């Protein structure tokens, strides 16, 4: 998984200690060295409070920054909605993964009309929870709305 997406998932509280350990192992195996990555592997027992602190230091060692929670949500939105708009994934399945990744984000906070409208996903959310449509219609609706979202918000890589 791309570093930026992985780090955003970390900030969004979607990862576990084992994920951070696997990340450290992968980076070291690929020749990306950091004392903090090595410390992650050396820790025993591997507890979140220690591993997460080392992970954040390792991320900085590797030249990345830890985004704010809000910024991490936007990284995840662009990632998932970009995949949906590409037409190469199941819109419903990918949107479900998006909702899982941003589950700590309050979709109701600050809304003006519909759930998720503060981040532009209200119509995709509506299609995802549609009762009167079949899967083909739901996928088509989510796909169509993802194209509009990309035009409005863009995809930053």
Observed structural traits:
157 residues, single chain, 8 helices, mainly alpha
Structure description:
The chain is an all-alpha fold. The protein has two domains: 3-61, no CATH class; 69-153. The protein is 63% helix and 0% strand. The chain has helices at 3-11, 17-29, 35-42, 48-61, 69-86, 91-101, 122-128, 135-153. Helix 3 (35-42) packs antiparallel against helix 4 (48-61) and helix 5 (69-86) packs antiparallel against helix 6. The radius of gyration is 18 Å and the shape is elongated. The relative contact order is 0.12.
Topology overview:
Layout: H1 3-11, H2 17-29, H3 35-42, H4 48-61, H5 69-86, H6 91-101, H7 122-128, H8 135-153
Q: Give Rg in angstroms.
A: 18 Å
Which structural class do the helices and strands define? mainly alpha
Order of helices and strands: HHHHHHHH
Overall geometry comes to elongated
* Helical proportion, percent range: 55-70%
Count of DSSP-assigned helices? 8
The largest β sheet comes out as:
none
**pLDDT under 50 segments (min length 5)?**
none
> Domains counted in the coordinates: how many?
2
Mean pLDDT across the residues is 95
* End-to-end gap: 13 Å
Strand content: under 5%
Number of E strands: 0
């Amino acid at each position: 998984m791309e570093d930026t997406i992985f780090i955003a998932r970390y900030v969004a509280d979607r990862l576990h200690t084992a994920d951070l350990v696997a990340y450290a192992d992968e980076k070291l195996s690929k020749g990306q060295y950091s004392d903090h990555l090595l410390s992650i592997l050396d820790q025993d027992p591997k507890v979140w409070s220690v591993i997460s602190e080392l992970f954040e230091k390792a991320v900085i060692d590797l030249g990345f920054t830890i985004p704010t929670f809000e910024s991490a949500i936007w990284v995840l939105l662009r990632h998932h909605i970009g995949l949906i708009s590409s037409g190469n994934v199941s819109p419903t399945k990918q949107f479900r993964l998006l909702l899982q990744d941003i589950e700590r984000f309050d979709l109701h906070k600050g809304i003006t009309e519909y759930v998720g409208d503060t981040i532009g996903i209200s119509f995709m959310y509506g299609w995802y929870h549609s009762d009167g449509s079949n899967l083909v219609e739901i996928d088509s609706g989510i796909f169509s709305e993802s194209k509009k979202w990309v035009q409005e918000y863009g995809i930053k890589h």
